[in-house]
């Protein structure tokens, strides 16, 4: 008999590094979720930009079931057909010539950063080890990637941290010029900062990074873990910007919920990862690769990618309508279907309240810090679901403003 579990079970048995919602989703279809009590939610989060083709997509479910009946796992003393098919699809669809598979975005970034240092060691000697990244960046939770990410709150209490890292202001050309030099082995950047506030890079900034990396023989790494695989409206955001990195990392939407990450690069750079230099027990798992191959096949089509631009417009117009009525957003920004609404006035600093109130209104949203409501719906969300989600977001906004007003009036004069 299956044991009954609820939200209190989390507090009893799980390490307390998360603070999950009070409700527990148990099923999903498309852009809707249902919890243990049968309550329905519009999903504007996609598991933090993961389920970009929605929940229980029939084509993904079908190929997964087929692979489940064939082969689940092989060690890396072998390879497997799904991994090779996915690698070929990725190399045929991007600048890359070689692919390394991992289980997550953090592992893909770890591999990218290790490869950059190894490549510099092979070609320029042991002194070229500097890594330049951006303040407020997020590249994962391993000790290396969390140190490279420019958010001190995530490294507090974990010292000593890996060294020779330099964090510069995002979108600041002068800061980049001052920081990148002949001792730099790599520059890593998110084309759109996700956790840092849903901030798109300017084209000039990414072009300057490319120019400086070329000048100083450094590798340019694009972390597209969150914005990649169609969310920008291009298969990968580098295509939108017209700036090609040396290494690109992908995860999240790549598996639509199956754990998989990928590091893409050129043959010349990949050559530094000789046998034994890096590895992953589960990286390239046949189940995950089977699903990811179908994900890329579906998303890398004019229908889906053009649909992202259309849905972006619907979402942006909806947020602007809410703002015209309530005046709560200082800025609405983002790219494709990764959008951020910066709060102001009575609701400034209360992004988490939108998450909590959203649950009461049947809406799942995200935050990016304390002052940004982050939205990342499915790339194929039906217009009816998107508009219903916006309707619920407006109800959330009205409720929070009413509560803020009541709290203000209750304060002693």
Characterization of the model:
- It is found in: Cytoplasm.
- Its cofactor is pyridoxal 5'-phosphate.
- By secondary structure, the protein is an alpha/beta fold.
- It folds into two domains: about 5-55 and about 300-410, Aspartate Aminotransferase, domain 1; about 70-300, Aspartate Aminotransferase, domain 2, CATH 3.40.640.10.
- The protein has 14 helices and 17 strands.
- The protein has helices at about 5-15, 45-50, 60-70, 80-95, 105-125, 145-150, 175-180, 205-215, 235-240, 265-270, 285-300, 300-325, 350-360, 385-410; strands at about 25-30, 30-35, 40-45, 100, 130-135, 165-170, 185-190, 190-195, 200, 220-225, 245-250, 260-265, 330-335, 340-345, 365, 365, 370-375.
- A seven-stranded mixed sheet has the order 4-12-11-10-7-5-6, with helices on both faces.
- The model has no long low-confidence stretch (mean pLDDT about 95).
In summary, what is this structure?
This protein is 40% helix and 17% strand.
Kindly list the characteristics that best describe this protein.
17 strands; alpha/beta; pyridoxal phosphate binding; Aspartate Aminotransferase, domain 1; four-stranded mixed sheet; Aspartate Aminotransferase, domain 2; 413 residues
